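Human:
Care to share another protein and its fold?

Assistant:
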Amino acid sequence: MNYIKSFCKISQGKVWLNDNYFFEYKHEPFVLNEFYYALYEHLGIDYRKFFKMDRLSKLSFLAAEILLADSDREQPKTDMGIILFNKRSSLDADVAYQKTIQNKDDFFPSPAEFVYTLPNIAAGEIAIRNKIYGETMFYVMRHFYGNIITDAINDALYAAGINCVLAGWMNLDVLKNKVECLMMLCTTKRGKTENKQFIPYLPADFHIDRFDNFLEIFEDTVGDLYD
């Protein structure tokens, strides 16, 4: 049986760790990059590459930093994988790169922008930072389908040699200034002192097309984990 060891939620400047408030960015109006930098400073991170990342990678990176805070980042993790999901792919980075090539009189393709025009780079940034050597994947879906997400997590944990998966929904709508993040640290092992819950099974015909709806169901299923 597979378990959720811990989970992190980020939405519009508010951050929860295991259903407890972890951080809140209270400045108005909400500015995404300022929120990222405030959370970065709150975590006490010293990682210069963070400032070169696109906004999707920064969101994924920060959630992973919270969940993996107690892990040894220098220890190679061959038994750990990463699975991320969203519905807007790398659109934010795509738009930024498009601006560097759309004007023939000012045509200068930016390698710094181009590198982030694939969403799986977000998973790669986490893997590099934490020496995660298992398989990394990034799925783009039309909606937030909870059953597909849980099936993918369980399939990965049943794979030979994988005992832990960092999985999450990382969706940005920069035009609407909206952030949706739910990242989970999932494992095949139940620790002696850790309070874990099984990864919820969702039947194949149970499609969840709104992030808020899934959070309600997720909390109903595992929300009392740390009460």
